[in-house]
Amino acid sequence: MTRASTPRASTFTASLPHWLENRPLPDVLATDEERMSLVHELADLNWRAGNGGPFAALVVDSATGELVAAGVNVVLASGLSSTHAEVVALSLAQTTLAGWDLGADRSLELVVNWRPCAMCYGATIWSGVRRLVIAGSGPECEELTGFDEGPMRDDWREQLEARGISVTSDVLRDGALRTFAEYGASASTVYNARRD
Q: Which residues contact 196 (CB under 8 A, 6 or more apart)?
């Protein structure tokens, strides 16, 4: 007897949650602090709404402060493990600008509430952004949330900079730690596919 096979998917989609789609966002964010403040606000709202982890990201024009795209982690809402905030924001920016190279015509940056995980590190490198702005790096994200951020190179910052991506760290760090701590103390799902 032949077992019926599962039909194979040929497309997939992921969308921003309705609360973010319908939320008015500023057109321009002039400073790193303004940008990170918005990231922290979106990250906190995101996990509380149940879309995914406490992560958000922006793609911003470094020269003008124009907000090109905003993304949040939608792993739980989409059922797709790749839909981290960075991948969502980068993908929306690439869709908006109709191209995969976000550094081809202008200097764009990625603003995130922590150092990218192993997957988002690669996505950052291949996106073409010229700058990465993060609230912090280190073990606190994993310790406070329970997430596995994957194996990262010790020289991740130097590797980005060698590829023309400058890194600015510790922008409103305490805001990220507060959100992570509140998430970790909640009953929210920590979606690690591999567990100890």
A: none
Among candidate residues 65, 68, 69, the one with its CA nearest the CA of residue 56: 69
d(CA 113, CA 16): 18
Please tell me the pTM assigned to this model: 0.94
Q: Where are the alpha helices (DSSP H) in the chain?
A: 18-21, 32-49, 75-78, 85-97, 118-127, 140-145, 156-162, 173-185
Q: Give the whole-angstrom CA distance, residue 191 versus residue 155.
A: 27
The distance from CA 57 to its chain's CA centroid, rounded to whole angstroms, is: 4
pLDDT by residue (tens digit) across 43-65? 999 999 999 999 999 999 999 99
Q: What is the pLDDT of residues 148-165, one digit of tens each?
A: 998 999 999 999 999 999
Give the separation between CA 172 and CA 147, rounded to whole angstroms.
Answer: 21
Structural tokens at position 100: 């995969």
